[in-house]
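# step 3/5: fold
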Amino acid sequence: MTTLLDDFLSGDRSRVMPAVWETIRSRDPETLDSLLAALPRLRRAAAQLDLGGAIYSNNDHFAHALSKLEHYRDGKCWCAVYPGLLTHDPRKEETQGHIRILSTSEPGWSMTYLCECTVCGQEFDIEQGDHHFTWWNWVPRGLKRRRGEV
């Protein structure tokens, strides 16, 4: 049975990219804990790979997954990973219970959102855009609490 770490280190794009996306989406401590000790190996593996990507570099997605692991290791809230990756759809995040959409602009491809993390209360201004694909730029407002703080 292969592990998520095996997939990351395989060098095979068809295995690496699902591992990247599973890590980016995960809020499971057991899944993320299993990768923390291997962060130096994962960084070396990432530096040796060309994962392609037609519109957005898959290597950037890999780097974002590693950033998520570092944020998790450092006790930052799950929402700390929203800035820096344009694929976090606020509607999907709300459906999963991760954020609350507090307000939106008029519907359209250039919508804006005001959202709040359900864990720490961090608010984000989000700009939605469209150029070959729909994207969301998350900008935090003010300071937030660390994961586990009241």
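# step 4/5: annotate
The chain has six helices and four strands.
# step 5/5: archive (pending)
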